[in-house]
Amino acid sequence: MSTADLAGIQAAANVDARGSACPGPLLEAKKGIGKVKVGEVLEILSSDEGTRTDIPAWAGKVGHEYLGYVEADGYDKHYVRRKK
């Protein structure tokens, strides 16, 4: 997805893991995905650069769809669609 597409996504829920170091953002994402229904999107806010590789790897491993991320002011907004 393009940055413009990602910026227009309406997330069903979000988790704020800014300021948390690895594996904090990943653990928050794992808890947060349970808050959204199948087909909905979870937004993960993270200032840890490791999240850029951790979240896509986790999503693929467990069967969710990683949509991408958008850079914000000092953090990233990651988007994952729940698939199961």
UniProtKB/TrEMBL annotation:
Domain UPF0033, first and last residues per copy: 15-39
CDD domains xref list: SirA_YedF_YeeD
Lineage top rank: taxon: Bacteria
UniProt keyword list: Transferase
Gene Ontology terms, MF aspect: transferase activity
InterPro entries recorded: TusA-like, TusA-like_sf
Family, as annotated: Belongs to the sulfur carrier protein TusA family.
PANTHER family named among the record's database cross-references: SULFUR CARRIER PROTEIN TUSA (PTHR33279:SF2), SULFUR CARRIER PROTEIN YEDF-RELATED (PTHR33279)
Name the record gives this protein: Sulfurtransferase TusA family protein
Source organism (scientific name): Dissulfurirhabdus thermomarina
